[in-house]
Design the sequence.
């Protein structure tokens, strides 16, 4: 039994297998239509995310399983002071797999520590959302046909966008992938992600201008530039149009360049782009369902899987105020392996010094 | 692929076929128990309406299909600024048919413009609720045995009651139907509905007194007279008892006169009437489920159906403040065919002059 | 057709049959996996209780049936003034059995008066929650192997804890059961429950100290001592630790003594106890699902069952302000059989004098 909390919980071989399964589901849906008959998925959502919940539920139903839907866990026992650990131990008596969404970072880790059934992280605050990345990957594979030798543009909010960081982590494991980082100064990729790129010897380039960058891309991943991220509204007004994708800008892109977006979009992609065959973002939601099918199937049927939990050490309170360890009274845990003398919180993965804690 | 937004999206022949299917379901439920196996319905409810949602979900389950339930869409992506068009394009990747409820008028039309799967309007503000009318029609057919040669009394709030307007639109397509309009002055049938009656050469009579009117009726359709509809509370107090159906008043009705009500009722039908065999309003909810089964079945299996969308012209902002075009930034559209120089909004069907717009 | 509103709606023979069915489900799950195919359960929850709702839904799904989930009935037609009686008459057209949760006492009785399908009380305020007691009973039977000759400790809030009162009512029907009542003075078992024990000639003992009491127990039923129950906070602080179960206290218990808790727990059982094999509270939630399976199966398939409704008399308003008769305008009803000149409200079972009413 194992959990998927982060995209890196799946190695390259496993991602490739999930992609192969998803593509086989497209070809042979009947083969999968009853494969999980009698199995149950619980969607435990501590904050609303109808799209993600529907995608998981559709996935389980298309595998022949059934669903217990909890769209509003924030009003449940949690409100009575129950821990996530107790909740999943109970829910584990009702279902075979849990998809969980939570506003606090590391919540899925806290649940996985105690759960008797596989936990899939369906988003824990700004931390991880691995099945979104699986959707992105399948879309690239189905539309472009490969993961290697690609120029991938990431546009918009590269600072806070967890889907961007997760996609980078997934893609840098393939050969000869070049990242083009397109964002205003305020929303540049954080240095710790740049370091990951460096460590992996990945090629990348920072270009503030979408019109210049778009020319060479095989994949353009759009995200939203939110006004609230800017201290200075005039600065926001100056740059915002640059990061809106229009039919005009699409004329500069390659004939095969596909456009992705995690959705919902507000106005960062003009509606006129929707009819462009290169606009892949609605197909991307279909691919999300297919990858969730492949993942649920893997986790529910993989009897002998062992969840590799990294070695941890104890320490003082986590510095990240949005870490689940501040929401519930959980013993802080840190990954044993240090990076430059810093340790990652085992829950939310925030890097910090442990010395002056305890 | 087609949508059902309004009762008139179904012609008389189609209504008759739905009634026949529903009556066949009653006789041969086993024939339908697995007919939509593997198909999925999404109930997208942007305002709560548990009864309607349950009826749709029961209908889909009794056809062997499954359900993705969204009882609280108002807390979803819509809150993040996503348009209805984007939402249904995504949801269309998860399910085979959508039943949608929304507080704004014309919302179902906005969704249908973009949806890749059939949309059933489960109520869009005060505008339309066609499956309620289908429930009314099946009840009349099962209880009285015909749609022609009927005297139909409509009692209570005829001004705002959308179920009343919709039932009139459906019934005036049959032969020799006479409408008896029973309401206080404040809540009389609007002139544009009276004009529809005139145009169809339908017989009707306005009678303020239920006790007088009830004597001749084959069907009595009750609705609620709400205090809030009156400017003058004393006027409300003077008339309210006249529009409450009691066992006493039922003594005046014909032996075969059936009583309908869209439910929920508050006190406009005394509880003592419930035991009268002519009280058909609880059976009416059963009929609602049966007609929803027939309709879902038709829409999901009718591969070659073409949705006839009326010709539209563009124009300025719709005058109806409750029109979905004010809620979302949608391009206003008007039905091309004018009536007395006025045009209907394509979304909410409010009649208005287009000249001084643009 | 019959309802289960209170644990005493099931006689000892029926409880034993449910236990036998549940234990057979454990041995032969395949035998039950499709037994209710085509049947539907509605979970009508007028207050959130995710755990209970999930347990009912899991139970129905494991019987091969399907579910219409209403986690938030408080936002539904009830808000529009519809009575519970009307609601269940409508819902009875959609499903085969109803599990209902409501904040008002006696609400399940009000529903059962009108429902055309079996109603299971999933908790009505502080009144009854019979399926929790069924979970408790199956746990005792599976873990200890018998219901007779047991010493059962009940610890914590014995005054307000409805699960405690219900378990006492269920267990005093077996032979040679001794109750050990462990609570602070403020939260002692109410006199009317003590009278029930006396009337049944049951042995019992009141001991304020858990450490002393634990030594002799076969079963320890823990509940939460809430600060809000105390007028004097210092008194709460003085006693609270006494009613927290720790590994230290478990050392004093018998090797076979099992620990139950209705969950959610907050801190009344230290987490360190979870790993003790005698800690049965998570297995108890599994047993709750199994007993709900057995009960749903019984009620849906028992065609000829007759619901025995006790004789009632009318009277004035119920003295219990949390009685459903104050929430909805229901005619007050009292059980005809008097106890010491007092009558029980037919809805909420509060004992009261009828003379000065009417």
Sequence:
């Amino acid at each position: 039994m194992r959990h998927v909390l982060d995209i890196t919980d799946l190695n390259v071989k496993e991602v490739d297998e999930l992609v192969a399964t998803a593509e086989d589901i497209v070809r042979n849906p009947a083969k999968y239509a009853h494969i999980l008959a009698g199995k149950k998925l619980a969607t435990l959502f501590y904050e609303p995310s109808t799209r993600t919940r529907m995608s998981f539920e559709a996935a389980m139903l298309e595998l022949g399983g059934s669903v217990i839907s909890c769209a509003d866990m924030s009003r449940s026992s949690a409100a009575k002071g129950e821990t996530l650990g107790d909740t999943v131990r109970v829910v584990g008596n009702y279902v075979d797999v849990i998809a969980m969404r939570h506003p606090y970072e590391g919540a899925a880790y806290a649940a996985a520590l105690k759960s008797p059934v596989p936990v899939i992280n369906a988003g824990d605050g700004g931390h991880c959302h691995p099945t979104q990345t699986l959707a992105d990957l399948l879309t690239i594979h189905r539309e472009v046909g490969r993961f290697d030798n690609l120029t991938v543009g990431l546009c918009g909010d590269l600072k806070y966008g967890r889907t961007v960081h997760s996609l980078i982590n997934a893609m840098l494991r393939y050969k000869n992938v070049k990242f083009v980082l397109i964002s205003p100064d305020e929303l540049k990729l954080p240095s710790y992600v740049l370091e990951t790129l460096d460590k992996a010897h990945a090629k990348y380039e920072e270009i503030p201008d979408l019109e210049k960058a778009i020319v060479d891309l095989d994949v353009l991943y759009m995200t939203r530039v939110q006004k609230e991220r800017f201290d200075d509204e005039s600065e926001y007004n100056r740059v915002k149009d640059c990061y809106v994708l229009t039919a005009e800008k699409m004329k500069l892109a390659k004939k095969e360049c596909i456009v992705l977006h995690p959705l919902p979009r507000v106005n960062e992609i003009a509606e006129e782009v929707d009819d462009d065959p290169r606009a892949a973002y609605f197909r991307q939601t279909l691919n999300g369902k297919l990858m969730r099918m492949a993942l649920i199937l893997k986790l529910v049927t993989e009897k002998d899987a062992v969840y590799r939990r990294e070695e941890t050490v104890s320490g003082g309170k986590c510095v990240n105020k949005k870490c689940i360890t501040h929401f519930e009274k959980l013993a802080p845990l840190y990954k044993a392996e240090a990076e430059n003398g810093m340790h990652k919180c085992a829950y939310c993965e925030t890097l910090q010094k442990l010395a002056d804690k305890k």
Chain A touches chain B at residues 33, 48-51, 54-55, 57-58, 61-62, 66, 69, 71-72, 263-266, 282, 285-286, 289 (CB under 8 Å). Chain A has three domains: 7-128+288-301, 131-278, 311-358.
